[in-house]
Amino acid sequence: MPKPLIALFVFVCILDLVILALPWLLARRGVLLRRTKFGPALVFDSEANGHSLRLLNVRGTFQSLSYTSDDDWHELVTLYHQYFAEVVDIAGGVGSACVIGGGGFSFPKWLVAHCPRTEVDVVEVDPAIIRIARESFFLDRLEDEFHAERDGRLRIACADGWEFLRTSERRWDLIVNDAFSGRRPLGPMGTEEGARIIHEHLERGGVYLANLICPLEGRRSRPLDEVRRAFGREFAYLYLIPERPEEPRRLGDNVLVASDRPLGIAKRYRAA
Q1: 79-269: which CATH number, 3.30.365.10, 3.40.50.150, 3.40.1790.10, 3.60.15.10?
Q2: pTM: predicted TM-score of the whole model, two decimal places
Q3: pLDDT surpassing 70 at residue 21
């Protein structure tokens, strides 16, 4: 056998061994590796500002953060989730909510723990992500302590969020789009058709919240302009709460709020 082929064979064998050993090596360092529909997922713990955190990274992108202590495992870590919660409070609470995009179930956990009269539907397309949320992001603990699934206050659907919403006959007081969709931050729900479908599935005076991941200015802010136009035509009131108003060209988790009633949100955030 020619030497180049022998070298290639040895290299492939070593590579296979490394790949086979990778989960064990990561586990030795406290990192959990799982396969998901969208690529490898890593779950690991860290610390920040005196808090213990758990992180979910899917194919190189951070998708969820959770506190891990007994005092705050159902509290919200990220700023945009905290804005979501503030808007719910400003709206006077909600009786029903549909959250599209489960991930680590950060916002659904907060709704169940802090809004005892709210019924929550969560739509997550990847069954592996739901398993990770149960095992590592306290979704099982949520059920143990609040019995929300048993009592019908938390319902989890493993389905495509857009198809679930488009074909549903239900209406909610709150619809939340917390899904990730590549270069189009809101996917089909950021289009004129998406705005119309969302509007049709909200109760009168209902509220729509979305995590709009893009800069506020520059070439990459085009999705923001498209969403503003689409939702500005469909809803009477539109607000945009930026994550980094002082750095408008940086990527940020910006909160889009749409409703047919005025909300007690500062006028400087009016987007339409």
Answers
A1: 3.40.50.150
A2: 0.87
A3: no
